[in-house]
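User: I'm writing a short report section on ligand binding and want a predicted complex to refer to. Could you take this sequence and pyridoxal-5'-phosphate and write out the structure as tokens? A short remark afterwards would be nice.
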Amino acid sequence: MKTNKVQNHCHKQQKKNPMALSMKPFIVLSVAVNVMLFMKQFSWSNEQMDENAKGVHLKEEKMRVSSSAVIDDGKTPIVLDHGDPTMYEEYWHLVGEKTTVVIHGQQGISYFSDASKVCWFLEPQFERAVIRLHKVVGNAITEGYHIVVGTGSSQLYQAALYALSPSDLLEPIEVVSEAPFYSSYPLITDFLKSGLHRWAGDASKYDKDGPYIEIVTSPNNPDGSTRQPMVNRSGGMLIYDLAYYWPQYTPITYPANHDIMLFTISKCTGHAGSRIGWALVKDEAIARKITKYMEISTIGVSKDSQTRAAKVLDVISDSHVHKGNFDGISPFFDHSYDHMAWRWQQLREAVNKGKLFSLPVFPSATCTFSGRTFGPLSAFAWLKCESEVENCAEFLKQHNICVRDGSFLGSSSKFVRISMLDKTEKFELFIQRLSIMNTAIA
Ligand SMILES: Cc1ncc(COP(=O)(O)O)c(C=O)c1O
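Assistant: Sure. The structure tokens for the complex follow:
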């Protein structure tokens, strides 16, 4: 995969980097910036945040402060290419034993969970936890929907394509999404060179007649924007990828009620390693086809993972429902929102220090869940290199920062996608280096 090449090259380059020498003065600057960042920890203010967001729990603040004592040597590779949500480890560490799950040897032996259900491998406790959390947050309707569990929403994406693709077409049905789009869509859609579907690129440029499938990703990966269907033509079928429709990333403005909606714990709770996603599907026949795909490809979805996911989702609901009685720990979405707002504040400050980079700005809205008014706090930064830099990923790579080239996301190499969900230490190192670059190369 080309992205891997970029990343490996980035690792290799660290020793021979021609920029390494010129980075020496950066180290001195780096110390200064580090001290500034440290002092700013408690004085940051985000115009997109309301007063509530500033009341971060002391214990949680301490974590951020202690990790800011990182000094950048300018050489350590900072890999922010993948959306690996390790940021969330801090919160789950605080929560401790509450999420511990014990699975006994005799448990979960059967392939089946409830053979009478459309999705016969859906664990009842996982189903209950999903419904409960959507009710607590108010981000999706679950009444009248079939829930289908998947090995991550990546598998559900494939299953939904399978379920929607007509089997009687002479040509594969075309699949589109508005650019910039999640770079895995084209890869997954065309991976097996299926006769059922094929990737057709940017939905905003799609002008063919006939049936098509459009993926509506809202908030969008990479830029965090709120999305609506783009093509709007007869014969179109929609899959809503709502991986980021959670209140730490975007204001919840309505309970989503689309025909097919995909969610994942990877981006909601951070437990990407459990590989659990779910689809809310209105139409029973489509839900059955999605289930069939899972049956044929993996004969269901790990019950162990569903059990763990159910526990984590329930703990999140508890943290909000029993607010104030949760061992002094902030409710999950409050903590995560505060942390995302803090990260975005740091990033915008670093970008505003000079003229090298820019970030998109999207309108604010009031969140029906939290009552806060704010703009998107995207899981990725969609950074543009201004001035004469044509290949932003290459440019950052020269400073040992590895990110995803915008051309993989249906856009241009002037843009890069940067994960905002990595560990705090790495994020702070990144902010320091970006600030130094931006002030040094003014
Ligand atoms: C928009 C979007 N959908 C789906 C996924 C995949 O999620 P999962 O880990 O559940 O397969 C990602 C992961 O980055 C994503 O950004």
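A remark for your report: Residues 101-320 form a domain with the Aspartate Aminotransferase; domain 2 fold (CATH 3.40.640.10). The longest strand covers residues 146-151.
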